[in-house]
Amino acid sequence: MHGVTRLYLSTVAVRGSSKTQKQKDEFMKELPPSRETPATLATWRHHPRPASGLSCVPRHFQLLAAVILFLTVCPPRAAAQITNTVFFDDFADGVIDANKYQPDAPFFEGGQGDIHATEANGVLEFTGTVSQQWWAGATLRIVPTFTVSDETNVVISVDRVSEAGIGTSSRSALWTMDSTRTTFVLFADNQGENHWEYNRKINEAGDQPTGGGTAIAAFDDLAGPFLDEGLHRMKAVANGRTVKLYLDDVFGAEVKFPFTNLVFQIGSYARANGDTADTTFDNLRVETVGTATFSTTSLTLTSGQTAPSVTVRIPPGANATTAIQVRVVSSDPAVAIPAGGTVGTLTLTFAAGGSNTKTFDVQALGVGGAQFTLQDDIGLTAGNALDVTVIGGPGLRLQDDFAGASIDTNKWQINNQPFETGAGTFTVAPSNGVLVITGTLDQSDAWGGASLKTTKSYTATKDLPLSVEIDRVSIDPTSSDPVTPSTAARTGIFLATEDRSKFLFFGQDLGETGWEVNTNPGNPTGSGTAIPAFVTVTDTNSHRLKLVADGEGVDVYLDNRFGRRFDFPVSSGIYVEVGAYARITGDAVTGKFDNARIENVLPCV
Fold first, then answer.
1. Which end of the chain has fewer CB within 10 Å, C or N?
2. What distance in Å separates the CA atoms of residue 14 and residue 454, rounded to the nearest whole number?
């Protein structure tokens, strides 16, 4: 702790105090600055000597008096957030406690070296040199393991004091792993490659278990504050479904990680032969955070139906002394509402000293989807949301043989959004009884094109799946010259949310993977996941594409032959798109489609 005596007030919450920031600042002058701010490493190493004329009462009594005075003048406002520190180490004793840590080195790329951890001068340091590339390293694994859920999130945070490795690259490492330590999210500053990034391994599409990971744009701005290899607080928040990554409380990325029993490790790695690791950490903390939750996260109703007694739970003790109000808010009151609310919002009051659960009813009004969320004004975290899908009966939703002279705007809209970032000149129109999407990538790389997108969205549930079929009549990948084939071109169909923040694309990628699927999140760009069942289908002629979605996943078919099932946990707000795309500048594509059919069908039994 660098010789600093520190006073911790774990039960004091000053956030939201009615006093001014200036009053708080004056109070904070009475306390030694926390080493969890950048200023401390440079300026605070020992207690300052009392100024002339000041009392020589021991400093900790002065601090206690200052705290009592501040709380008397500036009493904190009640806060419902229930946060408990379950592990903490400020590395002040100079000894790596075997009851807290075990030395480890999770396999990254198999490199070897003498990288190791030492605790001295109030910090934890990892140093050493790579003797056999690639990416040798070492960690300390926290001995206790941690269980997460919707109701209880787990937060690990640590000061990455400095990253001073020398060579081609080194990285500061914060690992979140499952209990078997075979799946992980590695949050790191890879200072010679992508800078701040994450690597993920959960045995799904989109994994990047080795090498340069997925760069985190929010942290990698060359003009931003995070590329100085200096003091930054790394934080990961796990809820059993995802891990959210932060630097200095700035959000960076949310990464799928569907595991509830977790292991945490911190460490350092260096890349190639002769590279050195030199990473310093401090103030390692693990906290549990109680959340407000719904008792269920999904409901499927028919229009006019009411679902009774959905339970909302707040953390035990949140309303022990003060009443707590939580709002249930519908994203689309035309589809579903909390009964008894106003304009889709219902306020639940948890009486002081009363139960920490309340129930309400859900009323379904119209076909579609709505998400219910929990909101409040007291800093209580929402642990989940309730997705309400309102369905009609089975039946045909859209059919089109593209026989007209123009696009039926009651059914379709043109979408010029590229598959990646490329731009070109493309047209979308019916011609001779088929839909033709054609054009050239004549402006910028990569994977530009266009699609025809439904004007309406659809629902998909286990009780009433969504079936989408279309004939991909042909694909012509001839480039703009017009003799040489394009480097790559693709045609296919999307199931997507309105903004494509979630999608599944099934198509034929000529020049790369063949028949494949891209998903977002997962592998939204580049070559998709090849489907072995279709690997022998290499012609560019007519084939029937079919997708069957049930709110959890999508079954993929080609010419009525099953290929594979992919995760797609979307039950409402699903748009269908038919598209054609070319890869790089000078590439062109012509895709022809016919006989589109979209329907909700009864499930196979």
1. C
2. 51
HEC sequence for 100-147: CEEEECCCCCCCEECCEEEEECCEEEEEEEEEECCCEEEEEEECCCEE
pLDDT at 82: 84
Backbone dihedral angles phi then psi of residue 323, each to the nearest 5 degrees: -65, 145
Per residue in 187-221, pLDDT (tens digit) is 999 999 999 999 999 998 789 999 999 999 999 99
CATH of 293-391, one of 3.40.50.1000, 3.40.1160.10, 2.60.40.3450, 2.10.260.10: 2.60.40.3450
Cα 154 to Cα 164, 263, 288: the distances in Å are 29, 11, 5
Backbone φ and ψ for 31, nearest 5 degrees, come out as -110, 150
Residue appearing with tokens 């000149």: 425
Using only C-alpha atoms, the chain has a radius of gyration, in whole angstroms, of: 29
pTM of the model: 0.73
Domain ranges of the chain: 1-77, 85-290, 293-391, 395-600
- List the structure tokens of 105: 């080195």
Query: Token digits for 457?
Result: 């969205």
Q: What's the CA gap between 234 and 249, in Å, rounded? A: 8
Cα-to-chain-centroid distance, residue 546: 29
Can you read off the two tokens belonging to residue 441? Answer: 């990538």
Task: Please check whether residue 364 is in contact with residue 339, taking contact to mean a CB–CB distance below 8 angstroms.
Answer: no
Burial class (CB in 10 A: 0-12, 13-18, 19+), 497: middle
Supply 194's token pair: 């992508």
Which H or E run contains 64? helix 59-73
521-531 pLDDT tens trace: 888 999 999 99
For residues 307 and 300, give the distance between their C-alpha atoms in angstroms, rounded to a whole number: 9
The residues that bridge with 377 in the sheet, in sequence order, are: none
Query: DSSP assignment of 33-50, as one string?
Result: PPTTSHHHHHH-SSPPPP
CA distance 448 to 425: 9
Distance of CA 517 to the CA centre of its chain: 21
Domain range 85-290, CATH class? mainly beta
Fold of 395-600: Jelly Rolls (2.60.120)
Instruction: Tell me if domain 85-290 and domain 395-600 are identical in fold.
Output: yes
CB of 86 within 8 A of CB of 121? no
Whats the size of the chain, residue-wise? 605
Distances (CA, A) of 109 to 137, 269, 605: 10, 10, 46
Q: In this predicted model, what pLDDT tens digit does every residue of 94-105 receive, in sequence order?
A: 999 999 999 998
Angle, helix 59-73 to helix 21-28, in steps of 10 degrees = 170
Contact 126, 115 (CB under 8 A): yes
Q: Give the Å distances, CA to CA, from 14 to 20, 27, 33.
A: 11, 11, 16
CB 192 within 8 A of CB 220: no
Structure tokens at 240: 């059993």
